[in-house]
Amino acid sequence: MSFRLFGIRFTITVPFCLLLVFMLLVDRTGLMGWMLLAVLLHEGGHLVCMAAASARPRAIRLQAGAIRIEKSGRLLTRREELRIAAGGPLTNLFCAGGGYILYSCTGMPAAALFFAVHLLYGLFNLLPLLGLDGGTICYLFLSRRMGEERAGRCCKCLSRFLSAFILLAGGFLVTKGNPALLFTGVYLIFMQALKGGGL
């Protein structure tokens, strides 16, 4: 399904809808609602940084496991790209700090959950892996020192190594009754496939 809003083309894919419905149905803890809020604030952080750089989004695509924002307009500098990539995770970490302060002052369980979800989501997206903000940040730093081609190869190798490590660790934890890390490794492989194996 596609539509235009404020001049931006939004696309919502069927896999995204199916995944969202499935996760909401199986969630018995209410955690999914907090995760959705973290994702929305994360993407909002990117959009605010894009607006600050006068980089209007051309399209936003909601697909299984990811939200893609396509930029339009002028070519951005490396510093602007870096700020936009970091905007999402930093928004989550800022929210985590607010949640921690609120929990410290009130002891509210919801504040503790808000803190934990935003902290984990922010740190997860800072991992130097293709398809995540951390991978983009890593590439931008490395490309300045060694050129775009070598930086791309380096980031690709690093992503494969870390993904393989996470999959192996996840496989071990499955034997202990915890499949979460294995699912994370599969998700990371999926994200890299969406990126086409490169940056």
Write down the secondary-structure element order: EEHHEEHHHHH
Number of helices: 7
Please report the distance between the alpha carbons of the first and last residues: 27 Å
Major β-sheet, in short? 4 strands, mixed
- Oligomer category: single chain
Strand order of the largest sheet: 1-2-3-4
Poorly predicted runs of 5 or more residues: none
On the 0 to 100 scale, the average pLDDT is 82
Radius of gyration: 18 Å
Count of distinct strands: 4
Fraction of residues in H or I helices:
55-70%
What's the shape?
globular
Strand content: 5-15%
**Structural class by secondary-structure content:** alpha+beta
Would you mind describing this structure in some detail?
- It is globular, with a radius of gyration of 18 Å.
- It has a 4-stranded mixed beta sheet with strand order 1-2-3-4.
- With 199 residues, it is an alpha+beta fold.
- It has helices at 14-26, 31-52, 78-106, 109-125, 133-146, 148-174, 180-194; strands spanning 2-5, 8-12, 57-63, 66-71.
- 69% of the residues lie in helices and 11% in strands.
- α2 (31-52) crosses α4, α3 (78-106) packs antiparallel against α4 (109-125) and α3 (78-106) runs antiparallel to α5.
- The protein has a domain at 127-199.
Keywords summarizing the entry:
7 helices; four-stranded mixed sheet; 11% strand; 199 residues; alpha+beta
Short description:
The protein is of the alpha+beta class and 199 residues long.
Topology:
Blueprint: E1 2-5, E2 8-12, H1 14-26, H2 31-52, E3 57-63, E4 66-71, H3 78-106, H4 109-125, H5 133-146, H6 148-174, H7 180-194
Parallel strand pairs: 2-3
Antiparallel strand pairs: 1-2, 3-4
Helix pairs in contact: 2-3, 2-4, 3-4, 3-5, 5-6, 6-7
